[in-house]
Structure formats: structure tokens, C-alpha cells
Amino acid sequence: MPKLLDAFTLSLLATVALASVLPCSGDVAAAFNLVTNLAIALLFFLHGAKLSREAVLAGAAHWRLHLLVLGCTFLLFPALGLALQPALQPLLTPELYLGVLYLCMLPSTVQSSIAFTSMAQGNVPAAICSATASNILGIFITPLLVSLLVVKHHGAGQGWGPVLDIVMQLLLPFVAGQIARRWIGGWVDRNKGLLRYVDQGSILLVVYTAFSAAVISGLWRQTPPRALAALLLVNLILLGLLLGITMLLSRKLGFSRADQITIVFCGSKKSLASGVPMAKVLFAAPTLGSIVLPLMLFHQIQLMACATLAQRYRRQQQTAESR
Fold first, then answer.
1. Is the CB of residue 177 less than 8 Å from the CB of residue 198?
2. What DSSP line would sit under 113-160, residue for residue?
3. H-type alpha helices, 51-106
4. Helices and strands (H and E) in the chain: how many
């Protein structure tokens, strides 16, 4: 079970604090942006090299499960974000609400979805396939949703430009990694810790550059404590709604207990690892800090809530087996 404040969460908080006190600007900011772009390209290259085609095919037969997970991730979540707009906008700043809406458009997590499914004794092969498909499709679907919904309702973004930017900066390195897997896949599998450090390091770089630009633009002066408290409540409500809806739908549609667990954990979570690099491509630097703030908070809430839920599922299964 994740600690209340694990090492990575503490690193995120320290990075935000550093950017608040010593924000980078000018040539230093340009250098950080270059390093960040290279780190993100390396991250997606390694993800492509790590992804096993066999692991994906192992769970591909559960098409009803995958459709439900993708529907919750890319249809239900954004629909809730838009439906809650009248209630959320008076509570949040415009930038924070945009961040909540962006959060709703992101793909599911990979590592934690699979880990929690395994802990709860769910359908792990299906979780691998579903979470992986969510992230691959998210490279296209998330910028498309941003172009359609954010541009239409908020005037942010640049039409189809973000889709092409995502393809160039994220998809091409991912495809290159897939091609290179035949030569470096074994080395990547033996050095999985490297991917974790690149993953977390690239996120910290994006967070530092994003919050530096946001602080210089007056992030903390324009974000009252009331809005931050409201953001915490909004994230709790969103996660609670999706957990409840995925539980209900998976039962009503007749899925097995193992499949229900997979649907709950893959269909209710959002990826910090994909969301932060995508946000850097999709949004302007001055607003980026406010936009990734809801995602950073949601990330920690979902880890704690899903860890507790996974342990509950596991205890229920152990109790049933002991009878």
C-alpha cells in the first residue's frame, strides 16, 4: 500500500516549492525546456521498447471489458467534467477548472492499474492489455478531445496542431522504441529501474518548468486557498463517482469478479506519467502549472483510495476461499 507521502510525492512537493522560490526564466528556462523535451522523448522511447506484444495479445480477447474501460476513460470522464462545469466554475479559478477538464480527458495509468488489479486478484492479463491500449490510444484521443472540447468551450489550444505535436514528440519516439525492442528489449527488461527514474525524472522536470512559468505569471497570487480546498473536494468527488459507476456497470453487465476488479482499477484512474508530458505540448507555459495541479492532486488521491480498495477486495477473496 502506498504511503501517505511516498518518496516521489515528496519530490513533487519539493519541486513545486523550489519553483515557487527559485523559478527559472530566460535562457535558463530555455535550457530546462530543451532538457525536458529530450527526457520526455527518451521516456516514450523506453516505454515503446519495454512494451511486450505478447502481453498485449494475452488480454486482447476481452473486448467487452476493454470497450467498457475505454468508454469510462474517454467518454464518461469528460462528460462528467463538462456536466459539472456549472457547479465547479464558481468554486475554481478558470485555469484550475481547465485542469480538471484536462484531467478527465487523460488515459488510464499502466503500472498502478496492473499492480492494484494483481493485489486484488483480478484479471491481470486483461488489465495489462486494457491499460496499455488506453495509453497508446490516449496519444491520439486526448489531444483530439482537447481540440474539440477545450478549444470549443474555452478558446485554448490550437485546433489539430496539438495532435500533430503529440505525434511528433511522443508517438514517434514510442514507435522507435517498439522497433528497437528486438535489439534492446532484453536490456530494458533487465533494467526496469531505469524506466522508473526516467519516468519520474521527466515528470519532475516538466513540473519545475511548468510551475516556474506559472509562478512568474502570478499563479499563487491568482489561486486563493478556497480554490485549492475546492479542488481537493472536486477530485474526491470525481474519483468517488468513477469508482462507483465502474463497480455498478461491471456488475450489471455480468462480468466475472476478476473482470469487475480490472474494470474498476483501469476505468477510474488517470495517468500522471502521460498527462504531464502531454500538457507541456498542448498548453501554453503560463497556464501549465494550474492545469497540471489537479492531476498531481488526483494522482495521490487515487493511489491511496485504490490501495485501500485493492486490500478490501483481497480480504473478501481470502474470506470466501476459507469458507
1. no
2. HHHHHHHTT--HHHHHHHHHHHHHHHHHHHHHHIIIIIHHHH--S-TT
3. 53-58, 63-71, 77-83, 85-88, 94-104
4. 18, 0
Could you state, in chain order, the average pLDDT of each consecutive group of 10 residues for the chain (323 residues)?
62 88 90 86 81 62 90 96 90 90 92 83 83 85 86 50 63 84 87 78 84 80 84 94 96 94 95 86 80 88 86 85 74
Distance CA 69, CA 63 (A): 10
pLDDT value of residue 53: 65
Q: What is the rounded distance in angstroms from the CA atom of residue 134 to the CA atom of residue 141?
A: 9
Please check whether residue 96 is in contact with residue 231, taking contact to mean a CB–CB distance below 8 angstroms: yes
- Give the per-residue pLDDT at 155: 45
* Residue type at position 243: L
In the block, residue with C-alpha cell 473486448:
63
CA-to-CA distance for 205 and 42, rounded, in angstroms?
Answer: 13
HEC assignment per residue over 21-55: HCCCCHHHHHHHHHHHHHHHHHHHHHHHHHCCHHH
Give the integer Cα–Cα distance in Å for 130 and 123: 11
C-alpha cell read off for 264:
474498476
**C-alpha 11: how far from chain center:** 17
What is the pTM assigned to this prediction? 0.78
CB-count burial class (<10 Å; 0-12, 13-18, 19+) for 321:
exposed
Nearest to 113 by CA among 280, 270, 286, 265: 265
Residue among 15, 33, 11 at smallest CA distance from 207:
15
